[in-house]
Design brief:
The structure holds two protein chains of two kinds.
Chain A lengths: L1 H29 L4 H13 L8 E5 L5 H11 L3 E4 L14 E6 L1 E3 L6 E3 L9 E4 L12 E3 L1 E3 L4 E3 L1 H6 L7 E3 L10 E3 H5 L5 H4 L3 E5 L1 H5 L1 E5 L5 E4 H14 L4 E2 L2 H21 L2 H27 L1 E2 L3 H37 L3 H4 L1 H15 L3 E7 L5 E7 L10 H9 L7 H7 L7 E5 L7 E6 L6 H25 L5 H4 L3 H24 L4 E6 L4 E4 L1 H9 L9 H8 L4 H14 L2 E5 L8 E7 L10 E8 L1 H35 L6 H29 L11 E4 H19 L2 E5 L6 E4 L1 H17 L6 E8 L3 E8 L5 H9 L6 H14 L5 E7 L3 E10 L2
Parallel strand pairs in A: 1-11, 1-12, 2-3, 2-12, 3-6, 15-16, 27-29
Antiparallel strand pairs in A: 4-5, 7-10, 8-9, 13-14, 17-18, 17-20, 19-20, 21-22, 21-25, 23-24, 24-25, 26-28, 28-32, 29-30, 30-32, 31-32
Chain B lengths: L4 E5 L3 H13 L3 E5 L2 H10 L4 E4 L8 H11 L6 E5 L4 H8 L5 E4 L4 H12 L3
Helix pairs in contact in B: 2-3
Classes of the chains: A alpha+beta, B alpha/beta.
């Protein structure tokens, strides 16, 4: 039922206005609302009509007797002769010619019928009405064919003269520019000074100075044009005789025409963009209407006035544009509403009370000693929305003063207004409006007496302004149906929505940028939607363009997977959802896992996204390395200690042992136990480290493994430069204290520095030796440079080796924490020597 | 059983003391070297019936000791490796160097007696 009602409402919404416009146009036309324009149009059309064969000749009577003129006319073969001047008196009417005499008609009292004034008609003559037609808008262009009479009709003069049946209808008199009624003097007729065929079957209209003096205004289209009454009658008679008088189209035909036009235009505007095609359609329809109207006048002697059709075309076009705009606005408003709802799903945005609570929490966070958010309720009294060490009863101003203070609008936190409202709060009080309109809230707060006063005030001001903006935008977007929102222009609402969405987007982007995880979102079709700062940096390191790389290209660029494998991975995720994890190629020293995840299959197609998340695993790996190293250290060291304790216990329980030796063994057991305890104590802190604390931690490492890893890292450069790296390390290494990653980087950097200064075919020596309490790593070789220059190079390294010198300098700075010593030496032509002495603990 | 001369090569002085005491309790004599280089020197200086060798040591580690041993002693005594660092790689390396036994620490007194007995052929 609801659906039917909706459909009916939709149908009415779609067709009610066009129907009303049609009715309006039809009614206006019928009531003569368009007569001025339609008359002018007809005048233009009329002027351009072709001239017809002249059948009417005007005879200037002069002093000729009417009877002589009748006789001469009969003799010349004319078919009728008419005396327009009512003063013409009695005229004979011989056989063979129709004689028409003009007589004024008068309306019979209280009746809409007419009668001719009888004024001595001769027998056989045809009296006819010569009343001038009623001009429309001051213009005479129509003529009546007859006037209604008590019995039948009184013929109009042209009708009688042309011999047309007299029906009481009007017709339009065409006035073609080329149709000029011929005019001769009566003497020519009487003298027979004419060629006979010229008057054969002609209609003669006798004019007198009186009839010529009388004039009508026949058009204003080409400037006011006056026409003699005689000429007008001649043209009307000519039209009737030639059969090209023009009839007005009946109202029903006009109505049908307008209805068809309405339907046609509705159909057109349903298919095209009204805004773009309004002008072409209107101009085209108007021109077509004029042309069609002209054609029908010429061919069918029927006049369809085009103004109503043109006006209807314009009106329907405007309606189509406006309704299109309205629909567009409605669609936009729905989209905006959805977008704002999606971007600000939090209840706080839509709930002013919740916003006030958030503001109260912000005040506490800022350390404001007093704060309250209040508003004026419907009854006009103030209502507390949230308060912190404050209440409405603290407002000391009178109600009138309060109204005045609040009415003035406090756009930024102000001291004066606050002090006037809350004098008890002292000069640190501030007051700010949080929105616009009568229902806005106000925030009163007091700044702390001490501390970072200016910063707190700036922060509070920023919060107040931010709330004002949010409230304002929210007000613009309110869809509660209140008058303000209903009449709010769409561009204002759009601007507010765009501001809110932009703000939301910027906040999200800022938040995403603060993540320690690199995140990139792709649309499911593969184009990039957005990336946070960390992912943008990672893309840069991988040589990928954030705005251009496809999901496939990004995964292939970030991992060691080839395109075929990436395609299979994406296909699987697309079809089945879920996620996959792939190790990211090494960029710098960080290690990451790339998590490729897709939104669920139930998500709308437009919402489906693909997320790339590069999860930093270096810290976890470092923690795992640390724990493995510590466990390894404990395993090996405690095995010695446990063995010593076990053997000691065996010895102590052996009956053969002497007392003095027993004492010594027990002392040794005690020493070993203490040593084991010390070892456990020394690593207990490391074992409880979190992944955050492990960064920069030093712990027992096998120096041999570190040296070998560093050599492996530096080997590509050595191979490029044709330099041999000679390594000498023990086969088995003890435990030394260091940060493994930093130590590895430093040794590798040292090897690269020396390698870069070694001739092709030369060698770099890397040596590890271990003594009881020190592990010594030496890197030597190269051509060398002055020692002072080497020292200076650490401060100002060459561009191509800057990373290496930085790694060495950082290693030197950090080595103190491991109780390690690092020294370097260099001399021109004698090469470099870097020494790292690590503390060896077992 | 006649006493055997046993060379202990290990950098852990406390452990060496215990091992030496136990060895002597069993009627053998023990000589301690705290790294591989000292151990080789001791072998060059006098004859031993057995070497108990640790792998992880400063100056010269156990693997290098094993590599060098044939070069400095013509008829070296059997060597038993006692180590907490017996990885698969080290085991493979040591096996290729005529090692008589590989024992992962910690070793018990009983195991030590058995090792000495089996490698020196004593009763």
């Amino acid at each position: 039922m609801d659906a039917m009602r909706r459909r009916a409402r939709k149908f009415l919404g779609k067709f009610a206005v066009p129907f009303a416009l049609f009715l309006g146009a039809f009614a206006l036309q019928a009531s003569g609302g368009f007569s001025l324009v339609d008359g002018a149009v007809f005048d233009q059309l009329s002027r351009r009509l072709p001239a017809s064969e002249p059948q009417v000749i005007i005879i200037e009577q002069g002093d000729a007797a009417p009877a002589n003129l009748v006789a001469a006319a009969r003799a010349s073969g004319a078919r009728s002769i008419g005396f327009l001047d009512p003063a013409t008196g009695n005229v004979p009417s011989p056989e063979g010619i129709r004689v028409v005499t003009g007589r004024p008609a008068f309306r019979l009292p209280a009746r809409d019928v007419w009668a001719l004034r009888k004024d001595g008609e001769g027998s056989g003559t045809t009296p006819a009405a010569i009343n001038a037609p009623t001009p429309r808008n001051g213009i005479s262009r129509s003529m009546y064919a007859a006037l209604p009479a008590p019995e039948g009709a009184v013929p109009a003069f042209p009708s009688a003269l042309a011999g047309r049946p007299a029906a009481a209808v009007d017709y339009l008199v065409p006035l073609p520019e080329r149709q000029i009624p011929p005019r001769i003097a009566a003497r020519q007729l009487l003298d027979g000074d004419l060629e006979e065929p010229a008057l054969n079957r002609a209609i003669l209209l006798v004019a007198t100075p009186d009839t010529d003096r009388q004039q009508l205004t026949v058009t204003t289209a080409t400037g006011a044009q006056r026409l003699r009454w005689t000429d007008f009658i001649a043209m009307a008679t000519q039209a009737l005789a030639a059969g090209n008088q023009v009839r007005m189209a009946p109202a029903s035909a006009n109505g049908i025409l307008l209805a068809v036009l309405t339907i046609f235009l509705i159909a057109i505007y349903r298919r095209v963009d009204a805004k773009r095609l309004f002008l072409p359609v209107t101009i085209g329809a108007g021109a077509a209407g004029l042309l069609a109207s002209g054609f029908v006048v010429r061919a069918g002697h029927l006049y369809f006035p085009p103004s109503a059709a043109i006006a209807l075309t314009v009106a329907l076009g405007i309606w189509a544009v406006l309704s299109g705009e309205a629909q567009q606005e409605k669609r936009l408003a729905n989209i905006l509403d959805g977008a704002v709802r999606a971007s600000h799903a939090q209840a706080a945005f839509r709930d002013p009370a919740a916003m006030a609570r958030y503001l109260g929490a912000s005040a506490i966070m800022l350390g404001l000693p007093r704060s309250m958010v209040f508003k004026r309720n419907a009854a006009g009294s103030l209502e507390l929305q949230s308060g912190h060490n404050a209440g409405i009863d603290e407002i000391a101003a009178s109600p009138a003063e309060t109204r005045a203070i609040l009415r003035d609008g406090v756009t930024v936190p102000q001291r004066g207004a606050a002090m006037a409202l809350l004098p008890g709060w002292g000069d640190q009080a501030r007051l700010s409006a949080l929105g616009e309109g009568d229902d806005r809230s106000y925030w009163a707060f007091a700044l702390p007496e001490t501390g970072q006063l200016r910063r707190v005030e700036r922060a509070a001001r920023a919060i107040a302004l931010s709330f004002r903006e949010l409230q304002s935008w929210q007000g613009d977007l309110a869809t509660g149906g209140d008058r303000r929102s209903r009449f709010q222009p769409i561009d204002v609402r759009m601007a507010s929505a765009a501001n809110l969405i932009t703000l939301n987007g910027e906040q999200l982007a800022t938040g995403l940028d603060e993540l320690e995880t690199a995140v990139m979102v792709y649309h499911f079709v593969g184009y990039p939607v957005g990336a946070n700062a960390m992912m943008r940096r990672l893309f840069e390191e991988a040589g990928l363009a954030v705005n251009e790389a496809t999901a496939e290209g990004a995964i292939a660029g970030l991992t060691d997977l080839d395109y075929e494998a990436v395609g299979a991975l994406l296909r699987d995720i697309t079809l089945n959802g879920g996620e996959m994890r792939v190790p990211v190629r090494d960029f710098g020293t960080d290690q990451r896992i790339l998590r490729v995840a897709a939104s669920g299959r139930q998500a709308r197609s437009a919402d489906r996204v693909l997320v790339l998340e590069a999860i930093e695993v270096s810290k976890q790996r470092r923690l795992a390395d640390l724990r493995l190293a510590v466990a390894n250290f404990l395993d090996k060291q405690l095995r010695n200690d446990i063995e010593a304790i076990g053997l000691g216990a065996s010895i102590a329980s052996d009956e053969r042992i002497e007392r003095t030796a027993l004492t010594k063994v027990i002392g040794r057991i005690s020493d070993v136990t203490r040593r084991a305890t010390d070892r456990l104590d020394s690593i207990s802190e490391l074992l409880s480290s979190s992944s955050e604390e492990v960064a920069g931690a030093s712990y027992p490492v096998e120096a041999r493994k570190i040296v070998n890893l560093a050599v492996e890292t530096a080997m590509p450069l050595a191979e490029d430069l044709g330099v041999e790296v000679r390594t000498s390390t023990p086969d088995v290494s003890g435990f030394s204290i260091a940060e493994p990653e930093r130590l590895t980087n430093m040794i590798a950097a040292m090897i690269r520095v020396v390698t870069a200064d070694t001739v092709r075919g030369g060698a770099v020596d890397v040596e590890l030796t271990e003594n009881e309490d020190r592990s010594i790593i030496r890197v030597s070789g190269g051509f060398g440079m002055d020692f002072e220059r080497l020292v200076a190079t650490f401060d100002n390294p060459p561009e191509d080796r800057a990373d290496e010198y930085r790694a060495i300098a950082e290693g030197i700075a950090r080595a103190r924490r491991w109780q390690a010593g690092i020294s370097y030496w260099s001399a021109l032509g004698k090469g470099y020597r870097f020494n790292i002495e690590l503390r060896r603990i077992g | 059983m006649s006493g055997k001369r046993i060379l202990l090569v290990d950098d852990d002085d406390l452990l060496c003391d215990m091992l030496a005491t136990l060895i002597e309790l069993e009627g053998h004599s023990a000589h301690i070297s705290y790294n591989g280089a000292d151990g080789l020197a001791a072998l060059q200086a006098e004859a031993f019936d057995l070497v108990l060798l640790d792998l992880v040591m400063p100056e010269m580690d156990g693997i290098r000791f094993l590599r060098t041993l044939p070069q400095v002693v013509a008829d070296p005594p059997p060597v038993v490796v006692l180590s907490a660092s017996l990885t698969n790689d080290l085991l493979d390396t040591a096996r290729g160097m005529n090692v008589s036994g590989l024992v992962r620490k910690p070793i018990t007194a009983e195991q030590l007696r058995e090792v000495i007995q089996t490698t020196t052929g004593g009763s």
